[in-house]
Specification:
Layout lengths: L1 H15 L14 H8 L1 H19 L7 H24 L2 H21 L3 H44 L7 H20 L8
Length: 194
C-alpha cells in the first residue's frame, strides 16, 4: 500500500512538472493482491489509483489536467491513508500484551534469583527490551502522523484545486511538501512498510 501511495504521489509530481505519465497499463496491478490481503479497502484504493493513472497516461494528461486527477483520486487516497494507519496500528494490542508478559517474566526471574549480579542483568535486559518496544511504538505513531499529514495535504490540494496555480496555493503545497519530506527523513527505514 505504501508503495502505491508513493508511486501515485510521484505521478502527481510528474504531472505538476508537465511531464507525461509512463503508465500504458495499470501500474498497480501487481500491488492490488498484496494490498487487499492486508486491507480490502486498501486494495480497492490501490486499484482505483492505478486505473486513474492509466487513464491519465492514455489521455496524455499534463499539468492542466492534474486538477481532474486530484479530484478523482482524493477519495481513494483518503481510503488508502486510513488503511495504512490501520495496518500499522493493528499489531499494537498484541505487542502490548506480549510486552506485559515479557515484563512479568523478567520480574519473576529477577525475584527468583538470589544472585545480585544476575538480578541486575535481568533488570537491565528488561529495561533494554522496554526501550526497544517504546521506540518501535513511537516510530509507528510517527508513521501514522506522517501518513495522516499526507492525507490532509492531499485533501487541502483537492479543496484548492480550482486555484492550484495561484501563488498562495502553490506556497501552501510547497510548505506541506517540505514538512512531509522532513518528517519522512526522521523515520527509521522500514517503519510501517506494508
Amino acid at each position: 500500500m505504501q508503495e502505491g501511495l508513493a508511486a501515485y504521489l510521484s505521478a502527481l509530481g510528474r504531472l505538476a512538472n508537465d511531464v507525461l505519465l509512463p503508465y500504458r497499463e495499470d501500474p498497480f496491478l501487481a500491488l492490488v493482491p498484496a494490498a487487499a490481503a492486508t486491507s480490502q479497502s486498501g486494495g480497492e484504493a490501490i486499484a482505483t489509483l492505478g486505473t486513474l493513472l492509466r487513464r491519465a497516461t492514455r489521455n496524455n494528461s499534463r499539468a492542466p489536467e492534474m486538477r481532474e486527477t486530484i479530484t478523482a483520486a482524493d477519495p481513494a487516497v483518503q481510503k488508502l491513508i486510513e488503511a495504512l494507519g490501520q495496518a500499522v496500528a493493528e499489531p499494537e494490542a498484541a505487542e502490548a500484551a506480549m510486552r506485559r508478559d515479557e515484563a512479568e517474566q523478567y520480574a519473576q526471574m529477577a525475584a527468583a534469583t538470589h544472585d545480585p549480579a544476575l538480578r541486575r542483568t535481568i533488570l537491565e535486559w528488561a529495561a533494554l527490551r522496554d526501550g526497544e518496544a517504546a521506540a518501535q511504538a513511537a516510530s509507528r505513531a510517527e508513521y501514522r502522523r506522517i501518513i495522516a499529514g499526507i492525507g490532509a495535504s492531499h485533501a487541502m490540494v483537492n479543496a484548492n484545486v480550482a486555484r492550484i496555480t495561484e501563488q498562495e496555493t502553490v506556497q501552501r503545497i510547497r510548505l506541506a511538501q517540505d514538512v512531509l519530506r522532513r518528517a519522512a527523513r526522521a523515520l527509521p527505514r522500514g517503519a510501517g512498510d506494508t
